[in-house]
Write a structure and sequence with these properties.
By secondary structure, the protein is α/β, with parallel strands linked by helices. The chain is built from 23 helices and 26 strands. Among the domains are: about 140 residues, TIM Barrel (Alpha-Beta Barrel); about 230 residues, Rossmann fold; about 140 residues, Immunoglobulins (Immunoglobulin-like).
């Protein structure tokens, strides 16, 4: 009895002491300054950093992705499936000291699974690591969250074709909300690369060739992701600009190849959109690019990542590596001689976080201990990632609500936005009067094309909640009114053998095509049979809708030697050209719908086809949008965000070239097939009464121009009014045209509007021979039109005063166009 009583007393004492310890420890942790939300963020960062060991700091500069899949007990690498069940024992092995970021936690999981999974990870990090620092979860969201059931908007090049910054902001706001609802905190987008080579497989991920257009749309995208304030709201995410820089002009059009760019062009063209997004939208993250410029890869380029980005522009956000790019300084660029060398190069250049898995940055710990690296460099980068975690509110609100997540993802409101965006993205390239089709004129309609019966989404996509192929969209539009029949007509690549993994009504193989290494072209043994079937169908129809182009296997990011996506030709693949010729030869009314990720060359077929629409990849609502445009429910209003070449031999071809660039080709043509800014409408617009107030046309002043535009056609429509300038004579050569403003205007038939264009004169500045950013006096031509080639009105005004040096704080990045 005595022994039992004594044991009970001892047990109770131990139990009470344990409770007291937990209480004291909890009280101590909660009273620490970095956990006090009433304190300024910078004070919290300093306090937390002072508490961290070297090893804990280095852990914050790392990411887990493939390794992190082991945190999911149900992950099956062969089937690419997961159940979202968190494995705490693996967490203790993989991230015992915490982690900076976790990549793409939504992969292979439905929305609710993802939320449960990310919450479990955060809970473990907060409760089981010494300092309880939560992780940032980053996701891909190039044109909607690249996760199952999420809304898939038109691909980036199609978004740019809308020339609608307010719409872009709305799209990326919706994307941000879907990412955050699943537990994500950061999106690795938007892409602000200047795209000057359509052979490049990533052309579809960009917003085109023009620095001003990309800057305007890029600022809108960042504000959509992050909101308009300095901190990130609970339903928004950190935006990440990609890729700094020169990535869009690779030598030979091959992904990650060197970019041959001089400093003046680098600053005025390639850096301009990034600079605007930093200074005007307060973007919180930037990703360095794979390529090199003048022998210095971006991930080791201190002048670019520190001197320009941070010291000149004042960027204080997070700079992340592209996937595996730091290690590739050694393996691909052949810099240094060891992983330790390239780890120090990247950190010294300004790269804060290594993605997507720990490789070279874990070596930073031993480098400090060997006195080869100053720990202050690590502290600087850790400060940046901690700051963003506080900005996101992760210490106060680390968890995501599970309530209603399955209903919110891919909701009807976002679906309607995807449809609206797809309708505005289409560009009418040619129309002899065939379009719009009268729904009452046809009883039999032939829909033909290798992918007309599925929905092409483009790269960085997953499987959305629903998709609408073009065939389905037309059938739904004409239900009960006409018979709609389908023929494949041609094949582009080998058919995917296992479609069972995509269990949706209108199956899309976009993700599989984009990810699979094998991009073998389809055999052509049955090509004539397929063409004959299509011709027979057309002859028995009143009109043919011919859908041709490319797919995600033939235009995509080349991320390895066995996963290529760049091309030496821009011609149609397979027997598509022969198919077009055969269908046109029937004499039946025919509409050519191009669905592709890059501009294609069709040669004389462009002249032969009665009507042509460039549709790009229009997202999940493709079929409905195409049907609405074909049958006149929607008047096409998209404009090309880049130049269409006639022949691959013209590359590079862009509208803002220098005066000496176009002497001519022997037996060739220097003109574009379709110029930058081009796009037709079912109606017509008249421009008139251009006037300029140049009374303040000097440095730091603003010129104002006014004009009228009238819808003179028979259909309601929208026009994108474009403002260009030309510096007629300067001390260094200037482009023949430069876009400096644009405005989308909706007008009913017969209706007019007046526009006022406010152009800060500092936007006319350039880098002179001494690389000073100056406004130089002289004559400037202002041109207004419907494309870079179709100029409707122009006037010349004079910039007066002495040459003025424009400093960073005086730069005017964007103009304003208002309707009044």
């Amino acid at each position: 009895m005595y022994m039992i009583k004594k044991k009970n007393i001892i047990g109770r004492t131990v139990f009470l002491c344990s409770l007291m310890f937990v209480a004291l420890n909890t009280h101590g942790k909660n009273s620490e300054l970095y956990l006090d939300s009433s304190q300024p963020i910078e004070k919290r960062v300093v306090d937390l950093l002072a508490r961290m060991t070297l090893e804990e700091k280095v852990a914050q500069l790392q990411t887990i992705w493939h390794q992190g899949r082991e945190l999911d007990t149900g992950f099956d690498a062969k089937k690419n499936t997961a159940n979202g069940e968190f494995d705490a024992s693996q967490a203790k092995r993989i991230m015992p000291l915490g982690i900076g970021q976790i990549a793409r936690p939504s992969e292979f999981k439905d929305p609710l699974q993802t939320v449960k999974y990310t919450n479990a990870i955060q809970r473990w990090l907060i409760n089981e690591t010494r300092l309880g620092i939560p992780a940032i979860f980053h996701e891909e969201a190039l044109h909607g969250h690249a996760a199952t059931q999420s809304t898939s908007f038109p691909q980036a090049i199609a978004l740019a074709s809308t020339w609608d910054d307010e719409l872009i902001k709305e799209v990326y706001s919706a994307s941000a909300k879907e990412v955050r609802a699943r537990g994500g905190n950061q999106a690795l987008t938007p892409i602000l690369d200047i795209a000057r080579d359509p052979r490049w497989g990533r052309i579809e991920e960009t917003m085109g060739e023009d620095p001003y257009l990309i800057a305007q749309l890029g600022v809108a995208a960042v504000k959509g992701f992050q909101g308009d304030g300095d901190t990130i709201p609970q339903d928004r995410v950190i935006a990440t600009l990609k890729h700094l820089t020169g990535h869009g002009q690779p030598s030979g059009g091959m992904n990650i190849a060197p970019a041959h760019i001089g400093e003046r062009e680098l600053r005025e063209v390639f850096l301009y959109p990034f600079e605007a997004a930093v200074t005007l939208a307060n973007v919180r993250s930037i990703m360095a690019s794979y390529n090199e410029i003048d022998g210095i890869p971006s991930h080791a380029n201190k002048m670019l990542l520190t001197d320009i980005l941070r010291k000149e522009w004042g960027f204080n956000g997070l700079l992340v590596s592209d996937y595996n790019a730091i290690a590739e300084l050694l393996t691909r660029h052949q810099l240094g001689g060891s992983k330790e060398d390239v780890a120090m190069m990247a950190l010294n250049a300004g790269v804060d976080v290594e993605m997507p898995d720990p490789d070279v940055y874990p070596l930073l710990t031993s480098l400090v201990k060997q006195n080869r690296l100053d720990v202050k460099l690590i502290d600087i980068s850790v400060t940046r990632i901690l700051r963003e975690k506080f900005n996101l509110g992760l210490f106060e609100s680390p968890y995501t609500s599970e309530a209603g997540v399955n209903q919110f993802i891919g909701n009807d409101k976002h679906r309607a936005l995807a449809l609206k965006t797809a309708e505005k993205a289409m560009v009418l390239l040619k129309n002899d009067g065939t379009l719009p089709l009268n729904i009452n004129d046809f009883k039999k309609i032939a829909v033909i094309g290798p992918h007309a019966d599925e929905t092409l989404l483009g790269g960085y996509s997953d499987v959305p909640r629903q998709t609408v192929p073009i065939l389905n969209g037309i059938r739904e539009k004409l239900k009960g009114k006409a018979e709609v029949r389908f023929a494949k007509g041609a094949r582009i690549t080998q058919d995917i053998q296992d479609p069972t993994t995509l269990a949706i009504k209108a199956s899309t193989y976009s993700k599989q095509r984009w990810e699979q290494n094998d991009a073998s072209l389809a055999g052509q043994d049955d090509s004539q049979h397929l063409i004959d079937e299509a011709v027979k169908l057309t002859l028995d129809s009143d009109v043919a809708i011919l859908v041709v182009g490319s797919n995600e296997a033939t235009s995509r990011e080349a991320w390895s030697e066995d996963h290529l996506g760049d091309r030496t030709s821009l011609n149609l693949l397979g027997s598509q050209e022969a198919l077009i010729e055969a269908i046109l030869a029937t004499g039946k009314p025919t509409v050519l719908v191009m669905t592709n990720g890059r501009p294609l060359t069709l040669g004389k077929l462009y002249d032969k086809a009665p009507a042509i629409i460039e549709a790009w990849y229009l997202g999940q609502e493709t079929g409905t949008a195409v049907a609405n445009v074909l049958f006149g429910d929607v008047n096409p209003s998209g404009k090309l965000p880049l130049t269409f070449v006639r022949d691959v031999g013209q590359i590079p071809l862009y509208y803002n070239y220098r005066p000496s660039a176009k002497r001519g080709y022997l037996h060739g043509d220097t003109s574009a097939q379709f110029p930058f800014g081009y796009g037709l409408s079912y109606t017509s617009f008249k421009y008139s009464n251009l006037t300029i107030d140049d009374s303040k046309a000097q440095a730091n002043g603003v010129i104002k121009a006014r004009l009228s535009i009238t819808n003179t056609g028979q259909y309601d429509g929208e026009e994108v009014v474009q403002f260009y300038v030309r510096d007629k004579f300067a001390s260094v050569t200037r482009p023949v045209k430069q876009l400096k403003g644009f405005k989308r205007v909706a007008l009913k038939t017969g209706e007019s509007a007046k526009l006022e264009f406010s152009l800060p004169v500092n936007m006319l500045a350039f880098y002179d021979a001494q690389m000073q950013f100056i406004v130089e006096p002289g004559d400037i031509e202002l041109m207004v039109g419907s494309s870079s080639k179709d100029i409707r009105q122009s006037l010349v005004f004079k910039v007066s005063g002495d040459t003025s040096v424009i400093h960073q704080e005086q730069k005017a990045y964007l103009s304003q166009v208002q309707i009044f």
